[in-house]
């Protein structure tokens, strides 16, 4: 503990440490929705509900029906419904998140805004419990609302990071938060997979077990958000540009000012461009890994479930290891090392033999090691280039641009598969995103970016 010139102990590091521990819990809270619902259970369950709506509830004969849903005069295949809903909510959030960021920067009660968005999102997620029979519309409302609130709350949560940590602490704090998220989401996922896979021994039908599991993720998200809401402090607004009007009007005015000012921060813009490429590659690998494992390598669902859990828990160690690497060599070098790891992952995926379990599991370990570390350090590294008082606005652009361009990777993956008929060149094609992202990241001058933010 340090002492000031007056001899009074400086208690600020203790206060920051207390808030940091509280902040970790939001990653723990929202990861339950991401893992249990968005990643594993939502798409198969919602497809089955949509099939029942399209064909009529005909029990075991449902598989013989190939009818489409009729929505606003359009025919939608039940199997495509989850993808359409996620795409719609993602693109909508790209427009809404900058507005959320502008509002967040003009309120001292960021923890209240964070909790309000989280609890609203968890309420939408809880609606999935009532999505049964052929009521796919309830699921559609739940998915869109939960995804929008998750994105908005993430913007506010990321904006709190620079307020509760000094520059030299942020890589460690961000990495630990990411690790907590993997741990919390992984633990609940294990419990829910046990419930779904063992539903018969518990006297439940599979659909009810899935609905209970999704409800548990919504409750988990809401319950653990209480901790940051109670333990975080309100921080004074530090905004350089006075804008007249009430909160909403002033926020829109500030958003316009920030948009005009962005060219004054070329380092931040260069990093954002690099992030768009390499993060799109990361997200596409994660989204396509199960398809690659099942369709190209021929693994069963049980093997894929085990692999998902392996990645989840290895990512905890990966996030913590990258945090330590950043403390020693700097965040930029650590991220570049992670991108080299991703290049190795997609290269190995090109040649993994069919049904070769050990190489496939080694590939999963590689993904786990680099997945959390690169994303956690990107979050903390970007904070160095944000001017004081505009944290939420800049993080809103960080997430909005990501969502607005997140289809590049999946489009590349789909096109290469369509032209080649194989998932191997499709997943290897994603190497372009890591190479281009890494090349752009090499152009980022950390010291210059800090100076630009300080101006």
Automatic annotation (TrEMBL):
Membrane topology qualifier: Multi-pass membrane protein
Give the UniProt subcellular location, in the record's own words: Cell membrane
Ranges for the Major facilitator superfamily (MFS) profile domain? 267-455
**InterPro entries on file:** Atg22-like, ATG22/LtaA_families, MFS_dom, MFS_trans_sf
The protein's GO terms of the molecular function aspect are: transmembrane transporter activity
* Keyword Transmembrane helix among record annotations: yes
The UniProt keyword set, sorted, is:
Membrane, Transmembrane, Transmembrane helix, Transport
Transmembrane parts of this sequence: 81-100, 112-130, 136-156, 177-197, 209-230, 298-322, 334-352, 358-382, 394-417, 423-442
Reply yes or no: does the keyword Transmembrane helix apply.
Answer: yes
What GO cellular-component annotations does this UniProt entry give? plasma membrane
Say where the protein is mainly found: membrane
One Pfam family from the record? ATG22
The protein's name in its UniProt record: MFS transporter
Species of origin: Nocardioides cavernaquae
The record lists the lineage as: Bacteria, Bacillati, Actinomycetota, Actinomycetes, Propionibacteriales
